[in-house]
Amino acid sequence: MLKGRARGLTLIEVLVTITILAILSAMVLPIAKTSLRREKEVELRHDLRQMREAVDQFKKFSDAGMIQQRCLQCYGYPEDLMALVEGVPQVGAMDKKLRFLRRIPFDPMTGEQSWGLRSLQDDPNGDSWGHQNVFDIFSLSEGTALDGSKYRDW
Questions:
Q1: What is the distance, to the nearest Å, from the Cα of residue 120 to the centroid of all Cα atoms in its chain?
Q2: Mean pLDDT across the chain
Q3: How far is CA 41 from the centre of its chain?
Q4: How far apart are CA 39 and CA 46, in angstroms?
Q5: Among candidate residues 101, 138, 104, the one with its CA nearest the CA of residue 119
Q6: What percentage of the chain exceeds 90 in pLDDT?
Q7: Distance between CA 42 and CA 48 in Å, rounded?
Q8: Can you give the residue ranges of every domain in the chain?
Q9: What share of the chain is helix, strand, coil (3-state, %, to 5)?
Q10: What separation in angstroms does the CA of 51 have from each of 40, 130, 154?
């Protein structure tokens, strides 16, 4: 046994280890990005479903005569998203408001609390909102989903 020889790793062993770690991290990074994107898509679908169900519930209560409409051309739909959060007076109980959402969620794809809206009177394929009522809600993101569809079309 040599007395002057130090114990440790050689330069080649360190380089091989670093190369292996670099290859593994390069393989994991796309998987992590896809997983993060998939989570955002699930959140977007959930938020859209939640808001659309609130609009449908508002329409159901309006058609049943349980809430007072403030808008003549609303056809039983809320006049804006804030009507779902702030609530509307319940018929027969002026001090009680029916609320359909706790808050307007953030769009996970844009990171903003703004959404695309369509009125019942608007073109179903158009992007402009006529401000008469809220019939449909969509994401303002220009991105494409993992399945190839546009987020705006969800």
A1: 22
A2: 87
A3: 7
A4: 11
A5: 138
A6: 49
A7: 10
A8: 11-153
A9: 40, 10, 50
A10: 16, 19, 13
C-beta neighbour count of 66 within 10 angstroms: 14
HSE-CB for 87 with a 13 A CA cutoff = 11
pLDDT digits (tens, 9 = 90+) for 96-118: 888 999 999 999 999 999 999 98
d(CA 103, CA 96): 18
**Rounded-to-integer distance, Cα 55 and Cα 81, Å:** 9
Amino acid identity, position 48: L
Q: In whole angstroms, what is the distance from residue 109 CA to residue 30 CA?
A: 18
Beta-strand pair 93-98/88-90: antiparallel
DSSP label at residue 74: S
Tokens standing for 69? Answer: 């409409």
